[in-house]
Design brief:
It contains two helices and no strands. It is mainly alpha-helical. It is flat, with a radius of gyration of 29 Å.
Length: 68
């Protein structure tokens, strides 16, 4: 019967360990130094241009319809 308690308690022991380390990090460690902002602004992708005309539903997918 005791052999069943060890595997069943492992997740709780791991959870308690992680929660204890989290508390220790929040309360006992000194705060980290702030990271400086990057010199350049981050790249933001632009949206593709809107289609001039939507293809018809019954149109076969051709190069003209796909726009490639």
């Amino acid at each position: 019967m005791y052999a069943l308690l060890v595997p069943a308690s492992v997740p709780f022991v791991l959870l308690a360990t992680v929660m204890g380390l989290s508390w220790w990090e929040d309360h006992l460690l000194p705060p980290a130094e702030p990271v400086e902002a990057p010199a350049e602004a981050p790249f933001t992708p632009t949206a593709p241009p809107p289609l001039a005309e939507l293809p018809r539903v019954d149109a076969t997918l051709t190069r003209e319809v796909a726009g490639r």
